[in-house]
Amino acid sequence: MTSTAADTTGARTDDAAELITGARARVDALDDRIIGLIQERMAVSTVIQEARITSGGRRVNLSREMEVLGRYREELGKPGTALAMTLLELCRGGASESVRPLTRTARDRRPPGFVGPGVRASQGRARKNHAWLAGAMRRTDRRASWDLAPGK
Q: Residues near 46 by Cβ (< 8 Å), separated by ≥ 6?
C-alpha cells in the first residue's frame, strides 16, 4: 500500500498537503540552523567557562544566567524561560559529558572523603544518617496511633 502526501501530512486535500510539505521542509531547514547556532553557542560558552576558571573564577556566572533567563522570558513568555534553562544546561555541559572545562578546579583537587572543612566523609555520612533516622522516627511516631488501632 502506498501513502499519498495527504496521508503523510494529515491534510484532507492535495493543495493543503502540498502546502504542509513545503512548510515542513522550511521548518526542517530552520531546525538545522537552530541546532547549528546552539552548537556554536555551546562552543563559545566553553571558551568563556575555561577563561573564567583559569582566572580563578567559577564556571557559572549566576547573574549572567539570570539576564539570559529574563531575556528569553521577555521575548517568548513563560515557555521561553524553560527553553533558556535547557539552553543554559547544554552550555554548562550538564547535558553532554563532552563539554567540560579543561582545567581542574580546587574543588576537584579535594582529598577523597572530604565533605567540608574539618569534616571527613565518615562524619558526614553519620550526620546524614542521623538526620534520616530522626525523620524516620518522627514519621513512625505519627503512624503509631494508626498502626496500633484496635482490631489489628
A: 91, 93, 99, 101
Looking at residue 111, the DSSP 8-state letter turns out to be P
> pLDDT tens digit string along 33-62?
999 999 999 999 999 999 999 999 998 999
What is residue 19's three-state secondary structure? Answer: helix
CA 112 to chain centre: 27
Which residues are 29's β-sheet partners?
none
Global pTM reads: 0.56
> Are 75 and 83 a contacting pair, CB within 8 Å?
no
Q: Which cell is 44 given?
A: 563559545
What is the rounded radius of gyration, in angstroms, for the C-alpha atoms of the chain? 27
